[in-house]
């Protein structure tokens, strides 16, 4: 019986076997040759949107749920393309970053094989790569409906402030360095774009995400009030900041 989005989300992270052919045994994930890059093709953008729908929604096991997932992914793709092209109101320059692994490892586990099917186009792969992580780098003084950072102040904040959003890693590949690689690449890209202060928002109860950001150099700047979060219909969030001058 094929697994669905909900079962993939609820399954524990994949325990990958060890390699014995090297001097020091290392997780097999290190052999997958993770690639992190700016997504520019429609295929990579679509795969990123499929992964986001999978990561940010809990779907019940109901009849024809896949059609609903495809519908949500199409909406997400339209919004993402508008952002990347600079046509989305309220957003500045937006760059989509993706992390991929080789599809030839898709038979390691049933969950990865399913991931290939869900997060790619047609046969589940894009140029022999499976998208397993993604984020958006937003060069903008603020994100719509989010807490606004305060660094840098003055007119500089209009041009040198950036935000990370839609950060996600496929469940089967979490705790294997994919998120760290994504953020490291985003920091480098932000510097090239003239960003000096980088922000992100994280739910107060998302412990794994908070650990990831702290390891990546982010510190707490502001906490959203519970009453404000209720008005937005979401859990309270933390605003995290990191400076890029020393990275």
Automatic annotation (TrEMBL):
Q: What is this protein called?
A: N-acetyltransferase domain-containing protein
| CDD domains (alphabetical) | NAT_SF
**What organism is listed for this UniProt entry?**
Adiantum capillus-veneris (Maidenhair fern)
User: Could you tell me one molecular function GO term of this UniProt entry?
Assistant: acyltransferase activity, transferring groups other than amino-acyl groups
From the broadest rank down, the organism's phylogenetic lineage runs: Eukaryota, Viridiplantae, Streptophyta, Embryophyta, Tracheophyta
Against PROSITE patterns, the record matches this protein to: GNAT (PS51186)
- Kindly list the GO CC terms recorded for this protein: chloroplast
Name of a matching Pfam family: Acetyltransf_1
Q: Where is the N-acetyltransferase domain?
A: 49-237
Going by the entry's taxonomy, the superkingdom of the source organism is recorded as: Eukaryota
């Amino acid at each position: 019986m094929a697994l669905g989005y909900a079962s993939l989300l609820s399954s524990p992270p994949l325990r990958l076997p060890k390699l014995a052919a090297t001097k020091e045994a290392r997780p097999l994930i290190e052999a997958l040759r993770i690639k992190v890059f700016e997504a520019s093709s429609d295929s990579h953008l679509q795969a990123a949107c499929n992964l986001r729908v999978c990561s940010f929604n809990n779907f019940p096991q109901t009849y024809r749920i896949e059609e609903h997932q495809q519908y949500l992914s199409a909406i997400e793709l339209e919004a993402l393309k508008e952002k990347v092209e600079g046509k989305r109101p309220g957003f500045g320059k937006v760059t989509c970053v993706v992390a991929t692994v080789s599809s030839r490892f898709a038979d390691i586990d049933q969950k990865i094989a399913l991931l290939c099917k869900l997060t790619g186009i047609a046969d589940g792969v894009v140029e022999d790569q499976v998208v397993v992580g993604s984020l958006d780098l937003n060069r903008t003084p603020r994100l719509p409906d989010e807490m606004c950072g305060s660094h840098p102040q003055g007119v500089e904040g209009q041009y040198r402030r950036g935000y990370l959003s839609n950060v996600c890693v496929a469940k089967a590949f979490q705790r294997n360095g994919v998120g760290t690689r994504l953020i490291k690449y985003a920091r480098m890209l932000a510097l090239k774009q003239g960003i000096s202060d980088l922000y992100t928002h994280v739910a107060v109860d998302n412990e794994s995400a908070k650990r990831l950001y702290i390891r990546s150099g982010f510190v707490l700047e502001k906490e959203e009030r519970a009453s404000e979060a209720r008005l937005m219909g979401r859990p309270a969030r933390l605003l995290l900041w990191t400076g890029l001058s020393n990275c």
